[in-house]
Design brief:
CATH architecture of the largest domain: Sandwich
Structural class: alpha+beta
CATH class of the largest domain: Mainly Beta
Shape: globular
Distance between the termini: 16 Å
Number of helices: 9
Helix content: 25-40%
Number of strands: 10
Length: 237
């Protein structure tokens, strides 16, 4: 087995691929550490690398320096902006690290070539892009139909895989970044946090405790769509 294969299995996009596909990808995959606030790419640049996170993550930013808005957060096991890499079109946003971490780096040109000949990889990419599309539609619907407290509740529920009972999570970015991600002002976010206390949500710095996921979900309706299914954990010696 290629030494990069175990790392590939930690990435949602690759976790279910057959061994032959994983070996092909491993041949050109690199593993690299990065520091907090590292710039992975900037808006308008051509995608030459596919980034998949083993540890840490990134925030996507749109707009000019000093007036950037947070578009989305990506974390461990996720692959950033797959569509741009597949199409070979310029990035519409910039990406910056939210913490120290490690990522698998795949040359975009070789990745595209492999998609053309590897049916299993092509199918996984199609499923990933379909999930991203559903997420985008869900976010547009949320902005157009929900108030600040509901948007925040949707966002928090989308950060945990817990379906029932209590959940604890760490915010993926600064609170001002969370505010722009859900399309509200920081002051409005503070009021939304206070409102969610009525639904059993408590915050301390960047940690959030949800006393009852079911109760919070009742405020917003159906759960926010996920970008991916969590990779299966390997067991045994």
């Amino acid at each position: 087995m290629h030494p990069r294969v175990p790392f590939l299995k930690q990435i949602a996009l690759f976790a279910e691929l057959p061994g032959e596909s994983l070996e092909r990808i491993a041949e050109f995959a690199g593993l690299q550490r990065f520091a907090d606030r590292t710039i992975f790419f900037r808006e308008g640049e051509e995608p030459d690398i596919v980034y998949s996170f083993i540890e840490g993550g990134a925030v996507l930013l749109g707009g000019v320096d000093g007036q950037e808005a947070v578009i989305e957060f990506f974390g461990p096991s996720e692959t950033v902006l797959l569509a741009a890499a597949i199409l070979g079109l310029p990035y519409l946003v910039s990406a910056q690290a939210t913490s120290d971490g490690r990522a698998l780096l795949l040359p975009a040109s070789k990745f595209r070539q492999l998609i053309d000949i590897d049916n299993a990889l092509a199918a996984e990419c199609a499923r990933a892009l379909a999930r991203h599309w559903r997420l985008l539609v869900g976010q547009i619907k949320e902005i157009k139909t929900h108030g600040a407290a509901q948007r925040l509740a949707h966002f928090l529920l989308g950060q945990t895989d817990v379906e029932h009972g209590e959940a604890t999570l760490v915010l993926p970015g600064l609170k001002k970044e969370i505010a722009t991600r859900i399309g509200i002002r920081p002051a409005t976010l503070s009021r939304a946090i206070k409102k969610l206390r009525e639904y059993g949500v408590e915050t301390s710095a960047d940690c959030v405790r949800i006393a009852s996921v079911d109760r919070l979900a009742a405020l917003v309706g159906p759960r926010a769509p996920k970008r991916h299914a969590s990779p299966k954990k390997e067991t045994g010696a």
